Structure formats: C-alpha cells, structure tokens
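Quick one before lunch.
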Amino acid sequence: MKINELLNVKYPLIQGGMANIATGEFAASVSNAGALGLIGAGGMTTEILKENIQKCKQLTSQPFGVNLMMMNPYVDEMAQLVIDEGIKVVTTGAGNPSKYMKAWKEAGIIVMPVVPSVALAKRLERSGADAVIVEGTEAGGHIGELTTMALVPQVVEAVSIPVVAAGGIASGKQLLAAYALGATGVQVGTCLLASEECPVHENYKNAIVKAKDTDTTVTGRIGGTPVRIIKNRMAKEYIKREKEGASMEELETYTLGSLRKAVLEGDTQSGSLMAGQVAGMVKEIKPVKAIIEDLFHDCEIEKEKLMNFLGE
Ligand code: TUI
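Model of the TUI complex:
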C-alpha cells in the first residue's frame, strides 16, 4: 500500500518539515497540489503555530499535517496544540518523540517520525508510529550519518510499518529508486524550495537553482548537530571556528538568526541556506503543482525505460 492511501491524498509524497520556511500558506499549496503539506513548527512559537494552523485550514480542504521539531523549546505545548486543533497527521524531526506518542495515538493522529537509524525506527514502531520517514544524510537541514541508499532498505527489513524515503529525492529516477528500496512514498524538501509558492527570498531560490553537486556542506558535525547548508562565507567561517575549538555558545551566537537572514532578507553570504545534495539538480523555479506532477510523470517514464533495460 502506498502512503497516499493511509494519508488520503493523491500522491505518495510528503513535504519536508522545513523549519522557518513551511508556513500554513505554503503547506496549503502543497496539499492543494495533491501531496501532504506540512506546517514546519521548527522556528515557531506555539501562538504562531496556532495562527499558521488556522490559515492552513482556511486555504485548503485537503489533508495537511504539522512537523514538530523536537529541539524547539515549545515542543511540549505544541504537542498538545496539535491535539486541540484536531490535526490529522504529525511528523517529527531532530529527536525522539516517544513521550508524546500515547497522547497522539489516543487522539487518532497519524504519527510519522523522521528517523536516522534502524534502532530508532524499531523503537518508534513499538511506541505506535504509523509509518517512519527514513531520512538519509543527503537531505538538507539537520541530518543523520547514513545515506538514503544504505538506510532505507535496512529499515524496511527491520519494521513492519510503511517506510517513507527522504533525502536525495528530486527527480523521477530518484522516486523510482526509493520504491525499489522498499519505500511506500517519499518526502521532499529541496525541490519544493525552488517553487513559486515557497515563501523564501528570491536569492535563496536562485542559490538553489545555481548550485552544483558539490555546493552543500555540513556545519555542526563536531558539536553533534550536523546541518547541511549551501556553501557560503558563513559556512566556511563556522567550520573554521568549529575546528579551532570554538564553544557551542560562540557558535550558536554566530548562527543565531542565520536561517532567518537567508529566508527573509535573502542574505546568501552570512545566512544559512539549508538545502540537500540534490540542489545541484534543481534547475528552475516552478509552481508546486508542476514540481509534483513532473516528479510522478518522470517516474513513469523512468519505470518504462528501466523495464526495457532489465528485459533486454
Ligand atoms: O529535523 C530535520 N531537519 C531539520 S530540523 C531543522 S531546525 C534546526 N536548525 C538548526 C539546528 C538544528 C535544528 C532543520 N532541519 N530532519 C529530520 C531529522 N531528524 N534528521 C535527523 C533527525 C533525527 C536525529 C536524531 C531524528 C531523531 C534523532 O533521535 C536521536 C535520539 O534521541 O534518539
């Protein structure tokens, strides 16, 4: 069963959480295009999340969800808010959501945590997760160690719940590959950043379009919070200071607000432009609906080509 049947949407595609980017308005445009839109609560306060939920409810009659970032200081309150607001789907990232699972399941919420390992996938299956989103290190933003190619089939082997693949998916070929690895759907972020509806600054979108394969790097490896971003002056300086042994406080002060700088002001040099390794494949800015339709259309074409190739 593809994940769209569980979620009651047309396409087996989930939008990435995209903290500080995925507003209620953006989530609604993804849901209206037939995939599952998500409000990214990562950089929000509880009040702002509530406003975004109201907005999304006004703008779409399609299912949508909320992504809760476990490192958000307001996550306890937000975990209750999603119940009070009747949210149907919750995805989580950047931590273990076990302590909220019982309450969410009692409220009838479909829960799909992002996991970077087999161990956490198994643990969350036992806690009642409906599916897991298995994210490889190719992804943008906060990442784990393993690649999508290595991790997805290992989680598929280890759990009985549906697996959604994430990290490194921006084309029909990669969507087809995710199915081949045993995934029942995909989560994408980077290719949706370069959409007309995405509320990031034009400079951010253009940086994605201009990026080549080797243009992302990872900050925060030493401190234990690895984050994949597009290489720029800020990334270089961060990694240099990290290697020199800068304290977490100094690094935090340095990066404070850097994602907002990139998203709102379009500061592509001192801002933090989170993006996955597939940024190198994203070549134009298109409407969300076209991005999603093209992905599934191209997947069909690639499937035919692959069947011909394998049948040779
Ligand atoms: O969460 C993401 N991507 C994100 S969150 C974010 S906001 C942020 N900004 C700066 C620093 C940190 C966060 C930007 N991008 N993706 C899902 C994801 N989850 N990737 C990795 C994980 C993860 C890591 C550890 C999930 C669970 C986990 O559990 C550890 C444990 O406690 O067992």
